[in-house]
Amino acid sequence: ILVPVFALIAIALSVLGEMSYTLTSTAHQFTDLIYGPRLAARVAVGYQAELSELGRVVNLFLLEGDSANLEKFVKDTNELAAARKKSRESLTGLLPQYAGEFSDMKANAAKMNDAVAKVVDMRRRGDKPETIRQFWTDAGRSVLTEQRSMLGNIAEWVTESSNKTTQPLQERPSRTVLIA
Hints:
Layout: H1 2-34, H2 37-64, H3 70-94, H4 99-125, H5 129-179
């Protein structure tokens, strides 16, 4: 009579142990995912938003012409430059396989920052708004567009990679529950 009871207890404990192991390993994989591709995807999307905001701030400044608030423009673009730098450095740490692309993006960021500084300098010198707009179109907007494109390619790959990694992890706990 005791042998079947002990056998049932042993079976229950082994099933519980297997479920515990599976859930623990899945939790570790989710943690790696959350602080890996998912975080990188979130940072990349934030970086894209910062680039869009830079374009918006510059365009608004150029549209306002002589009535634009130069000090607000300088403050906003400096804040955006710092946020972009932080995002780029985070992405470089999260995605070391893209170090070359991030190096190119750093060079483009320097070009953008120089173009913004030149816009400010031109405004302080009293250049005509049309001249400033033309300069930004020639020197700044193309670099900004290139930066967005480079980041878009990386963000697309990271998001796709994250989704591929997530799918098996989402299926694994449901398989474990069905087996038990």
